[in-house]
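Quick one, tokens below. Sequence please?
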């Protein structure tokens, strides 16, 4: 997979993310996004990340840009620090994809880069020129950003917000694994660390594999827990289970979070659960293509008139578009994917209401989703199949035979088909990896999972 921009920055195989290529894109980013006095650099826990981060830092220094090495920290923590200092930043992370891949995520001094910024970076990368070494610049280490990010939430919530609760923390190789333990302990809960790993585990919070689900249920059965929490590799996408270890999908977590924060506008991709509309809790709902740049652009558009917007994706990453004031404390907006806010929001909401996470979910409209992917499918093959099913109604009818009568098509991002029964099936090539993504939405978890399994089986047969 040649390195390219997807829905979450530049991604590619580690073998192809050479020092020279990383240097080229670092120089292109600095040139495309304007002159910078300093550059923040952070990284996740992948084995390749220190080497890539060093290549990024070296390239910036050669341009005469000072480098602040923030070390190992979550992507939202680096983003928050970038906004605090009004400095650009580069996060070295492959997020949830396997360790044989990695990537660069870019932040300008005002937030995530836009699709227009991506295009400018690509142009500069194609016309890259190596500077003459010798320009004066400095490199220093400052690993305090992660603590400031933790304090962001500890100062917003009461210190006893989770008192009396016991929370399992699935640590695996998440860069925020220790921060999550500190977080729940500082809020009064007992934290039980689980599954810490010395090697990188690619946890996809949008498509949690069955082996992980079984492990989560086993941990929940082994000791009384109110929930298990975790996140993906760079901790911008949450993973939360109820007391029985059942995973709560990201768009459900985020709908509960949006309600708790008093949002009146929701921006979310077309792949998110239609339960958002069914709640009737929001004044305006905007659907976008999949990827935080599209969500952010629509949030910025929404902010042209007074509103309280939030954004989220089916993977659970939550974007806060307004300053929230509750109980005399203010949480400032952070328009980048964040795992911690939905985690603490749903946990504290349940604790405050003296109820369970399962009850919070059951009180929502009965719409449930399931998603998974076929791995190692070249993007060209995925795109060709989606194109055929989109353009050929006969082929589409044959492919979806048995699911019922087609009542609506949505081509916002891939092919999303609604059937008379209320079932929704969605197919699209991944924007981050050579994968073909499948989504199903139905009235129950069981129905959604069965429909998804059938959909993936049919896709597997077609792809070969």
């Amino acid at each position: 997979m040649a390195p390219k921009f997807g829905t979450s920055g530049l991604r590619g195989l580690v073998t192809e993310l050479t020092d020279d290529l990383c240097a080229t894109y670092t120089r292109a980013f600095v040139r495309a996004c304007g002159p910078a006095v300093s550059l923040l650099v952070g990284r996740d826990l992948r084995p390749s990340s220190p080497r890539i981060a060093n290549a990024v830092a070296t390239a910036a220094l050669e341009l005469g840009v000072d480098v602040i090495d923030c070390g190992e920290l979550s992507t939202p923590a680096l983003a928050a620090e970038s906004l605090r200092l009004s400095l650009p930043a580069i996060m070295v992370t492959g997020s949830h994809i396997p360790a044989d891949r990695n990537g660069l995520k870019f932040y300008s001094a005002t937030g995530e880069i836009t699709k227009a910024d991506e295009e400018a970076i690509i142009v500069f990368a194609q016309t890259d020129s190596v500077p003459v070494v010798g320009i004066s610049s400095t490199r220093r280490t400052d690993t305090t950003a992660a603590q400031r990010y933790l304090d962001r939430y500890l100062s917003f919530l009461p210190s006893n917000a989770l008192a009396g609760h016991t929370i399992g923390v699935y640590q695996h190789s998440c860069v925020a694994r220790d921060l999550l333990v500190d977080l729940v302990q500082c809020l009064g809960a007992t934290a039980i660390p689980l599954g810490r790993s010395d090697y990188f585990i690619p946890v996809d919070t949008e498509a949690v594999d069955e082996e992980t689900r079984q492990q989560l249920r086993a941990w929940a059965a082994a000791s009384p827990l109110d929930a298990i929490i975790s996140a993906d590799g760079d901790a911008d996408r949450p993973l939360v289970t109820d007391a029985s270890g059942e995973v709560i999908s990201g768009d459900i977590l985020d709908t509960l979070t949006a309600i708790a924060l008093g949002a009146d506008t929701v921006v979310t991709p077309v792949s998110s659960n239609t339960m958002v509309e069914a709640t009737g809790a929001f004044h305006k709902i905007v659907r976008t293509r999949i990827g935080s740049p599209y969500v952010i652009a629509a949030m910025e558009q929404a902010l042209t008139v007074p509103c309280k917007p939030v954004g989220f994706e089916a993977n659970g990453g939550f974007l806060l578009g307004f300053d929230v004031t509750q109980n005399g404390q203010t949480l400032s907006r952070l328009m980048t994917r964040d795992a911690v806010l939905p985690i603490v929001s749903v946990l504290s909401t349940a604790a405050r209401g003296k109820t369970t996470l399962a009850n919070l979910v059951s009180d929502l409209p009965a719409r449930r989703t399931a998603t998974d992917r076929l791995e190692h499918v070249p993007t060209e093959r995925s795109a060709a199949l989606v194109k055929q099913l989109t353009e050929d109604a006969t082929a589409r009818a044959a492919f979806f035979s048995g699911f019922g009568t087609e009542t609506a098509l949505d081509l916002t991002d891939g092919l999303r088909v609604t059937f008379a029964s209320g079932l929704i099936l969605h197919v699209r090539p991944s924007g981050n990896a050579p994968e073909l993504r499948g989504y199903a939405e139905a009235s129950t978890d069981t129905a959604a999972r069965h429909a998804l399994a059938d959909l993936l089986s049919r896709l597997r047969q077609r792809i070969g």
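The CA atoms of residues 413 and 455 lie 17 Å apart. The chain has three domains: 4-143, 149-362, 368-463.
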